[in-house]
Design goal:
- With 268 residues, the protein is mostly helical.
- The chain contains 11 helices and no strands.
- Helix 5 packs antiparallel against helix 9.
- The protein starts with a helix and ends with a helix.
- This is Reticulon-like protein.
């Protein structure tokens, strides 16, 4: 091999080595840049996580439900058809029930129609229509109307009566405990509730009060289910403030009231 050829080979090898060194340096720089960018993005994410407000899930876990509720609103109302009506699961039935209650209230309160008069007029119209249809079916060559046999089943009536009896017995037991002077807080709550009912009874009659209750049952639960997180958060703060005020009232007033013998025995 001549000297000229050897120089060419050496130059080509040097050129290849320089190219490889440049490629290596380029790859090394790109890796460093990628690592720095990823680390900066991670730090940015950490800062965002630390500075960002708590999410919905953490918010829900921190908020205490109203009255210590642990079940969904639908389960609180029994989870059956009444709960579906109050929470507007079936909008046709809920709207029909509320519309019927509104029509009854308008008839008896606005138009001042009496219940017995309405019942008698309704029966007169129904019986007259069925009577004429039954007698005219032979002349108009149509079948007579099918009048179903109506009877009240025994099982639902017994279940309703049993449930009502249990609730009444429970109410009597609670009233007996209150009258015995064992729970001053419950006594004040019951007296306050009865006083509020007496005020409402003086402002409106029983039918208007019943219609107000129906409207409240068809509006408040569905609104609470929709905005339960915000309502529970506000209620928690309000209850905390009420407990503070009650503690002050208990320390200044209730604790100075002489206690009866039954309460002293219970404390001992």
């Amino acid at each position: 091999m001549t000297e000229h050829e050897e120089r060419k080979v050496e130059k080509s090898e040097e050129h290849e080595e320089s190219v490889m060194e440049k490629i290596t340096e380029t790859l090394h720089l790109s890796n460093n840049n990628h690592h720095s960018s990823s680390s900066s993005s991670d730090s940015d994410d950490d800062k965002k996580t630390a500075s960002s407000p708590p999410g919905t899930s953490s918010f829900k876990s921190k908020v205490r439900r109203l009255f210590g509720r642990e079940r969904p609103v639908h389960k609180v109302f029994g989870g059956g058809k009444p709960a579906d009506v109050f929470l507007w699961r079936n909008k046709k039935i809920s709207a029909g029930f509320l519309g019927g209650a509104t029509a009854i209230w308008v008839l008896f309160e606005v138009v001042e129609y009496h219940f017995l008069t309405l019942l008698c007029h309704g029966l007169i119209v129904a019986l007259a229509g069925l009577f004429l249809w039954s007698n005219a079916s032979a002349f108009i060559h149509k079948s007579a109307p099918h009048i179903p046999e109506v009877h009240i089943p025994e099982k639902p009536v017994l279940e309703f009566a049993t449930g009502l009896r249990n609730e009444i017995n429970h109410a009597f037991a609670v009233l007996r405990e209150i009258a015995a002077g064992r729970d001053l807080k419950m006594f004040l709550m019951v007296v306050g509730g009865l006083w509020i009912l007496s005020v409402l009874g003086s402002c409106c009659d029983f039918l208007s009060l019943f219609y107000i209750i129906v409207v409240v049952l068809h509006t408040v639960p569905v609104l609470y289910e929709k905005y339960e997180d915000q309502i529970d958060s506000f209620a928690e703060k309000a209850l905390h403030e009420l407990k503070k005020q009650y503690a002050v009232f208990d320390a200044k007033v209730l604790s100075k009231i002489p206690r009866g013998p039954l309460r002293d025995k219970k404390k001992a």
